[in-house]
Amino acid sequence: MRTTTMRLAHLIHEVEHNRNHYFQVSLPKKSGVGNQLHYRPHRTLLVLVDFSRAFDSIDHRVLSRLLANIPGVNCRRWLRNFLCGRYAKTRVGHRHSDRRPMLRGVPQGSVLGPYLLSLYVHPLLNLLNSFAGVTADTYADDLSIIVKGHSREDAIPTANMVLQKLHAWSQENGLAINPSKCEAAWFTLSTHTESDYDREGRWPLVVAGCQIPVMTMGASRNTKLLGMDLDPRLTLKVAATKQCTATSQRISQLRCIAHKEAGPSPHDPRTFVIGYGASKLRYGSELIWAVATDSAKNEMQKTHATLARIASGVPSTVDPESALLEANMPPLHVLCLRARLSIFENTRACQMDWMRRPPPEPPPRAGFCISPSSRDELYAFVDAYTKDYGITQSSPREERFFRSSIPPWFAASAHRVTIGVELPIDHSITDEEELIREKRRVSEEALALHSHRSWILAKGGGVDVPKSAGVGILLSSLNSSEIIEKASINCGARHAATGRNPVRRF
After folding, report:
1. For residue 414, which of 311, 506, 286 has the smallest C-alpha distance?
2. What is the pTM of this model?
3. CA 186 vs CA 48, 122, 233, 318, 471: distances in Å
4. Which of these, 114, 120, 129, 154, lies nearest to 2 by C-alpha position?
5. CA pair distance 197, 195, nearest whole angstrom
6. What pLDDT, in 10s, does the model give residues 50-100?
7. Per-residue pLDDT tens for 317-348?
8. Distance between CA atoms of residues 393 and 386, nearest Å
9. Where are the domains of the chain?
10. pLDDT tens digit string along 340-352?
């Protein structure tokens, strides 16, 4: 995984994918005579495994064998030269011990350290992912194992078998598992299904001879993944509440700095407010906004509005919309939508194998809710507009849009970004191919006045944004195909214009 958000998005995707996959269960009828088939969504078991001193335990001999599979002779020599010939010694006061060669570990804090660790555990991921219904991935030295099952009786034996293979592999390759820091969570929707609980302790989860507690409905504490609390329903309500609380502590500090009499002018601390306060609030907000309840979203919006009042210097009686306008800050739901689209482009560029169409829905019944639109439908929707505007993956200007993790709407240095530009197109053309060529010709003429390094329609003079181009489609919601006709974002002190066409290169 490239980012922590993508790691969390992977987990949410797997849980939602399993919930959309139903199985049949035979339950007694209410009358007590005979049984009746019911549809029940699959459950998900998450196991978080912690390695003790993972970066310091990498065996150079094992890593050298793995480096032999890397293409490029010079690259392999350079990596081996990076690892070999390192020595260490201990200092106590003014006395030094004799130096000894380092046969294990990679330098902490180096750029290559996480990459070499990922290469080291790559055979482990292949081993764990070979089990049916099991998905494993890592972020740095954190390993997560996702097991799909009908009930705990079905999922925990599979997880124990996987953990046995994990323990054997770690002993062979010199990595030590720390059972005291391992956690597990059981994700479900129902609170009345008895199979989701193990009150008698018949199905313990064991790793390295130690039992791992499994968090489920009614547990006293939540499992944490990369600093975000995970509740059994995976609504992330607890995570949203804690982030609002942590942001409120920073708000009290920012108010001391932004005092209108003793502090700087109202517009000076804007960057500091966004970087110190809003960054804490917006961690994982693109995922929280997708699954959290309305009450959690409203609490986050109130906290975001308080940050806007501090940045603009307006009193607390000013309404949130006016405070955001004075602070020149976009609304929180717009920022979350842009971040969610960024995740979508990152996963598409990485070609993740966990991006797949949800399984077919079960037969309709009373109270059944249809699953959301699949990624394939959204891909087809995006591809239709990119084809309509003559943009392909082979286009050199669009290369980074398709192949890198930089979102196309990253315009931090621009004064104004306009989505939607009306172009003089000859509408008398009826042939589809000629119409596409006409649209591309008109687009290139409109963009010829701007730098090829930047396709951002900026205003203000002297704006140089060395970012790649892309296509942005702004939808009213992820489950709707309706396009917002007018949209613009003012990134500086100037006013932003609006456009008509919903899809443009920018």
Report:
1. 506
2. 0.64
3. 12, 26, 9, 44, 39
4. 114
5. 5
6. 998 888 889 888 888 888 888 888 888 888 888 888 888 889 988 999 888
7. 888 888 888 888 888 888 888 887 777 666 55
8. 10
9. 4-56+110-230, 60-101, 239-336, 373-505
10. 777 766 655 555 5
Tell me which amino acid residue 417 is: V
214: which 2 tokens? 């499994």
CA–CA gap between residue 119 and residue 138 (Å, rounded): 11
Beta strand 223-225 pairing with 228-230? antiparallel
> Is residue 292 classed exposed, middle or buried when 0-12, 13-18 and 19+ CB atoms within 10 A define those classes?
buried
Query: Given CA atoms 126, 127, 128, 131 in this order, what sign does their dihedral have?
Result: positive
Least confident of 35-49, 212-226, 267-281, 394-408: 394-408
| CA-closest candidate to residue 451, choices 501, 406, 506, 502 | 506
Q: d(Cα 442, Cα 420) in Å, to the nearest integer?
A: 14
Min mean pLDDT across 62-76, 239-253, 290-304, 393-407 is at: 393-407
Question: Would you say the C-alpha torsion 398, 399, 402, 407 has a positive or negative sign?
Answer: negative
DSSP string computed for 200-251: T--S-EEETTEEEPEE-TT-SS-EEETTEEE-TT---HHHHHHHHHHHHHHH
Return the percent helix, strand and coil in the chain, to nearest 5.
Answer: 40, 15, 45
Task: Out of 51-55, 305-309, 438-442, pick the least confident.
Answer: 438-442
10 Å Cβ neighbour count for 336? 20
CA 490/CA 417 separation, integer angstroms? 6
Q: What is the mean pLDDT of the chain?
A: 73
On whether the CB atoms of residues 12 and 146 are closer than 8 A, the answer is: no
Evaluate the CA torsion angle 149, 155, 158, 159 in order and state its sign: positive
Give dist(CA 327, CA 493) in Å, integer: 10
pLDDT in tens, 189-248: 877 676 677 666 778 898 888 889 888 877 777 888 888 888 888 888 889 999 999 999
Q: Whole-angstrom Cα distance, residue 46 to residue 145?
A: 6
Nearest to 473 by CA among 453, 437, 503: 503
Residue 21: pLDDT over 60: yes
Which residues lie closer than 8 Å to 92 by C-beta, 6 or more apart?
Answer: none
pLDDT score, position 382: 63
In CATH terms, the fold of domain 4-56+110-230 is Alpha-Beta Plaits (3.30.70)
